[in-house]
Amino acid sequence: MPEPDKVPEPVKVPDKVTVGTIGKPHGLDGAVVVHPETDNPDRFKPGASLDTDSGKALIVGRARRSEAILLVTFVGVTDRDAAEALRGLVLTISADDRRNLEDDEFWPEDLVGLEVRDPTGSLIGRVAGIDAEAPQPRLTIATDRGEFVVPLVNALVPEVNVGDGYLVIEPIDGLLEP
Q1: Spelled out in words, what is the top-level CATH class assigned to the domain 16-97?
Q2: d(Cα 64, Cα 9) in Å, to the nearest integer?
Q3: Where are the domains of the chain?
Q4: What percent of the chain stands above pLDDT 90?
Q5: Is the dihedral of CA 108, 48, 50, 88 positive or negative?
Q6: N- to C-terminal Cα separation, the chain
Q7: Please, how many CA atoms are within 13 Å of residue 1, restricted to the half-sphere of its CB?
Q8: What is the pLDDT of residues 26-44, one digit of tens each?
Q9: Cα separation of 175 and 150, whole Å?
């Protein structure tokens, strides 16, 4: 089992961040379903330029909601076959183009490598990973007794101090048991 001081230090901010993934074509005019991974509603406005994991940039021509899905047409993609060729592409932006964070906000990757302390300040371990895609984000905490998963909720993680390199967890009964 990894020791707390053997866990990687905080990771470098990525150059690119994912804002969505292209799904199946919708209709015959080149529209595709996009599965967004962003909290910025303007990310898919007409004229927005998005990079892809294939190295090709796409420009949003039109975007609209249809029931619970986001439909996007990209400039130059005018038929179903061209739309099908985009299926599975990951849409990204430069990390520098992300929105500014509020004082109490952080990016998920900022947590990896932080010290994990109890409310008295005693070291418990380090954040080894974060599952931010789950319905409830979860931290993986590496300790000298093994790894533990802790839901990222205020009741269990009352303090996150990225600047000073630590977060505090409330070690309720059973939370850090193997």
Answers
A1: mainly beta
A2: 41
A3: 16-97, 106-168
A4: 51
A5: positive
A6: 12
A7: 12
A8: 999 999 999 998 878 789 9
A9: 7
